[in-house]
Design a protein that fits this description.
This protein is an alpha/beta fold and 272 residues long. It has a single domain, classed as Rossmann fold (3-Layer(aba) Sandwich), CATH 3.40.50. The protein contains nine helices and nine strands. The strands form two sheets. Strands 3-2-1-4-5-8-9 form a seven-stranded parallel sheet, with helices on both faces. The chain has a two-stranded antiparallel ribbon with strand order 6-7. β1, α1 and β2 form a beta-alpha-beta unit. The longest helix has 20 residues.
C-alpha cells in the first residue's frame, strides 16, 4: 500500500462514494491506514458494509457504511442528514462513484447506435452524481467552517481520447470491450467541475482537486493488457494501490496550497 505517513489524516473523517468498488475499497483502506475515520458510501449497501467490515477488521473502529444512490438528490440528502445526526464532520470527500450501467451490451454499443437512454444513465452517476455530492458535502463543510478537501476521480480518457487500436481483440470477463464516448465526456466533465469549484469555493477554505488514473488492471484479457502496455512508456498497466499516494497527498494538509489541479497517473501514456 502506497502511503505518505501512517497518521497523515489522524483526526479527520473521509467520505468515499463508490466505496464498494474496485478503486473505492482500496481508497478506503488507504485512508484508514493513514488515520482517518472512513464513511464507505455505495449504491450497493451490502458492498459498502463488506468494505467497512474489512477495514474495521484491519483498523478497528475506523469505518462505517452507508447506502447512497448519488444520482438521487433525496438519497444524497439523506446521507448527509445521517452523517450529521451522529455529529460527524466530514473533512475529506473522495467523490469516486461511477457506472457502466447494468447493461454492458448497451454500454459498449458503438457510437453510431449508442442510445440517449444509456447516455443519460451513465451521466446521471458519473457527472450528475459528482455535482450532487460535491454540492451537499461542500455545503456541509462550509456550514461547519471546515477547511475541507474534495478529491474527484476522473480518468485519462477525460483528458485524452482512447486509442481504438488498443481494443482490437480485447475482452473483459469474456466480452469485447471499448471506451464509449459517454465515458470520456462524463470524465472530462468531472475535471471541469473540479476546476470550477476550486475557483468558486477557494475563499471558503475548500480545496478541490482531481485524480485521473490511466488503465488499472482488473481482469482484462492478455490481448488488451499487451496492446495497452505497448502504448505506455512504463510498459505496463497500473494497480489500484498506485493511486493512493496522490490521494493521500490531496486529502491531507500536505497539499494545503494546492487546488484546481488534475493529477494524471497513467504510466506516461499522456506524454505521447
Amino acid at each position: 500500500m502506497c502511503k505518505l505517513n501512517d497518521q497523515l489524516l489522524e483526526g479527520k473523517t473521509a467520505l468515499v462514494t463508490g466505496g464498494g468498488g474496485l478503486l473505492g475499497q482500496v481508497f478506503c483502506e488507504s485512508l484508514a491506514n493513514s488515520g482517518a475515520q472512513v464513511i464507505v458510501a455505495d449504491i450497493d449497501g451490502a458492498a459498502a458494509e463488506k468494505v467497512a467490515h474489512a477495514v474495521n477488521t484491519k483498523y478497528a473502529g475506523k469505518a462505517i457504511s452507508i447506502q447512497c444512490d448519488v444520482s438521487d438528490p433525496k438519497s444524497v440528502g439523506a446521507m448527509v442528514k445521517d452523517i450529521e445526526a451522529t455529529e460527524t464532520q466530514v473533512d475529506v470527500l473522495i467523490n469516486n462513484a461511477a457506472t457502466k450501467t447494468n447493461n454492458l451490451d448497451d454500454f459498449f454499443e458503438p457510437f453510431e447506435t449508442f442510445t440517449l437512454k444509456t447516455w443519460q444513465e451513465v451521466n446521471a452517476i458519473n457527472l450528475d452524481g459528482m455535482f450532487l455530492v460535491a454540492q451537499a458535502i461542500g455545503n456541509h463543510m462550509i456550514k461547519n467552517e471546515t477547511r475541507g478537501s474534495i478529491v474527484q476521480i476522473s480518468s485519462i480518457y477525460g483528458v485524452n481520447a482512447p486509442d481504438k487500436r488498443i481494443y482490437e481483440g480485447s475482452e473483459y470477463n469474456g466480452r469485447p470491450i471499448n471506451t464509449p464516448a459517454v465515458y470520456s465526456v462524463s470524465k472530462a466533465g468531472v475535471i471541469a467541475l473540479s476546476n470550477y469549484l476550486a475557483a468558486y469555493w477557494g475563499d471558503k477554505g475548500l480545496r478541490i482537486n482531481t485524480i485521473s488514473p490511466g488503465g488499472v488492471f482488473s481482469g482484462q484479457n492478455t490481448e488488451f493488457v499487451d496492446r495497452y502496455s505497448e502504448r505506455i512508456p512504463m510498459r505496463r498497466m497500473g494497480n489500484a494501490d498506485e493511486l493512493t499516494g496522490a490521494l493521500l497527498l490531496l486529502a491531507s494538509d500536505k497539499s494545503s496550497y494546492m487546488t484546481g489541479q488534475n493529477i494524471v497517473i497513467d504510466g506516461g501514456l499522456s506524454v505521447w
